Amino acid sequence: MDEKDFALYPYISGASLHVKSLGMSLDRLVTSRAMESARVRGKERVLQAIEGELTKPNISSSDEQKILLELLSYPFSRILVSCIDDAFLTRRYCLAEAVASYRLLKMQKHDFLMEFASDFEVYPDESETGFKLHFSSYIRMASSLKAMEWKLVNRKLRHGNVNVSKEELARLLQELIKTRVEHNLPMAVPDELAEKCEPYLKEIREFLEERKSTFGESEFESVETDLFPPCVTHAIANTQAGVNLAHSMRFAMTAFLLTIGMSVDDIINMFGTSPDFDVEKARYQVEHIAGSSGTHYKPPSCSTMQTYGNCYAPDDMCKKISHPLNYYSRKLWFKKRDAQRNSGNQTAEKPEPVGNTTEE
Ligand code: SF4
In what residue span(s) does the DNA primase large subunit C-terminal domain sit (predicted)? Predict the structure, then answer.
């Protein structure tokens, strides 16, 4: 990999070593007039991440100035994200960096992908379908992907290896990139430096608030499929078995998954097995429910689900709640409480959530 690759993939080990070799201190990055273009691009990275699509520039290997600017904009964007220290922004920024890399990686040659993967201690070999990955690497990379197609049981295992296409390898690498970008974020920024970043932070804060009010912000920290209510679990199982869902159930499932923080892409992947699947139409519908038209839709309450015949096999927890989101938040609460009890820490227990999510 050369310096151009370091600029395009600034979180890889070679890139950080290269930045160190330049002798660039954080103070100089934040204050030097010569670094202004890198700071402006760093701010742009964060704004693009909030918008939902971080774009990488076209850079030629001979354009040293552009390479340096792009490379140094990355640590500055991390400083900005850390100064704002907002969980929604941090998640969105890490995802945007990872998705931008995925788009580049799926266009790369096999040799490049193999070298790139080795930076994450993944060593794919070429195969007839593209690549083969040792199953332990595959599990590590796919563990956060919710769609059934990524489950190991749905993959052919041959001599301990899983075959993946080039695009799938790039998608799996996206997960490792996201984790690496997330590492150490938010980092501690000395007050003096944070103050000097203020001129760049104002626009980001304003844009962030605007996007949050449009798209809503998930109150849930993680997506835990084993805690979903029976109605949603059943709908997902039907979708993945290729059974067409009623429109009302498809809406309820999508709104539920978006509200708990699942990404638009992961939901679209989930619909991929429906018999009438049309990716463009699905994206339009999911983004519409996510709030692209200005309205952020909430999933329906249990009584509405019952009215439309979408309440399926209610269990004991269902008797205590009136909304599928309350089912999920109570299950999460019990899981956390049990984990704390098992670790012997009972002091941090918060009160059990009540079933008070409002009607859609
Ligand atoms: S009672 Fe509510 S949460 Fe439970 S299955 Fe029915 S609709 Fe879903």
Answer: 223-321
